[in-house]
Specification:
This protein is of the alpha+beta class and about 300 residues long. The protein is built from ten helices and twelve strands. Helix 2 packs parallel to helix 3 and helix 2 runs parallel beside helix 6.
Length: about 300
């Protein structure tokens, strides 16, 4: 099987978005933007041994590769449209490709995005997805928009994926919920889009809350105080903290792919209403100030958010 046969066999699906004029099979893809909209793009790479284990299922790898890119689009308040896939394989494994392709196709349908092109090559296993979306001009939620006295919020729970990874590395069997948090994060697309009229700044929590919130503070030239006891955690992380008094997992563990955003105090009721309507947990954890530093009230331990280098 050559490269072109591989693409035709596993990655040439029917396009479902009428805005896409040309997808897989030509030198480049073509899709139309609505008048008054901007293009939004994001790229993430998943590497075997760094972002997933050697024995991770192809289905989980495909889902997560798509979901982490969609999380970036959600953080901008944009609508995801289509994506390209660059797949590096050590060898052609038909069973692996069937499972990977089936999961990627199903996940694409789930999140209403279309594969429109990409590349395949031989080498150590890694997956790169470049996601494209659109948003009304002057509407993106940027990291640089936080203002003094903004409330700071996070969605979902923090630290569960990091606890799962810790258990795996220590030879302890994680729960199914913990595995789902690590392998199948849920991109907050609907909430992100709804927040573009409410949030002043936003980022997706991929490398740890402490580090990612610090990106907002640096871009906005602001500071913040967050309260350690207000960080949203599930029962398994709560039990770990009660036993160890170690808050590092929800604070800097990474792989959460939740949204951290700031908003004016006047938006509190609307944000809580959105939380109820979309059935997405949203928790206020702190406040923006002008100090240009991050204070973690109630915690004096070490933080070690994920570093790529």
């Amino acid at each position: 099987m050559n490269e072109f046969d591989l693409i035709q066999s596993y990655f040439n699906w029917q396009i479902t978005d009428q805005a896409i004029d040309l997808g897989v099979g030509d030198d480049a893809a073509l899709f139309n933007l609505e008048p008054g909209h901007q293009l939004v793009t994001s790229t993430d790479t998943l590497v075997e041994g760094v972002h997933f284990f050697k024995d991770s299922s192809p289905a989980d790898i495909a889902y997560k590769a798509l979901a982490v890119n969609l999380s970036d689009i959600a953080a901008m308040g944009a609508v995801a449209k289509c994506y390209t896939l660059s797949l590096t394989l050590p060898k052609i494994n038909q069973n692996w490709l069937k499972e990977f392709s089936s999961s990627l196709k199903g996940s694409s349908r789930l999140f209403n995005v279309n594969l429109v092109g990409g590349d395949t090559t031989r080498g150590p296993l890694n997956i790169t997805i470049s996601m494209m979306g659109s948003i009304e001009i002057d509407s993106p939620i940027l990291r640089s928009g936080a203002r003094v006295e903004d409330d700071i919020y996070v969605t979902g729970d923090l630290g569960t994926a990091a606890l799962c990874l810790k258990k795996i590395e220590e030879g302890v069997k994680p729960s199914q919920n913990e595995l789902n948090k690590l392998n199948r994060p849920i991109p907050r697309l609907e909430l992100g889009s709804a927040l573009k009229k409410l949030a002043n700044s936003c980022i997706d929590v991929s490398d740890g809350l402490e580090q990612d919130l610090s990106h907002i503070l640096k871009s906005s030239d602001m500071g913040a105080v967050i309260e350690i006891q207000k960080l949203p955690i599930d029962d398994s992380v709560g039990k770990y903290i009660n036993k160890t008094h170690d808050w590092s997992l929800p604070l800097s563990g990474g792989d959460d792919y939740e949204l951290c955003f700031t908003a004016d105090i006047s938006s509190r009721d609307k944000i809580m209403k959105l939380s109820q309507e979309l059935k997405i947990k949203v928790t206020k954890i702190g406040v923006i100030n002008s100090s240009k530093k991050l204070v973690i009230d109630g915690y004096d331990g070490q933080t070690s958010s994920y570093q790529h280098f």
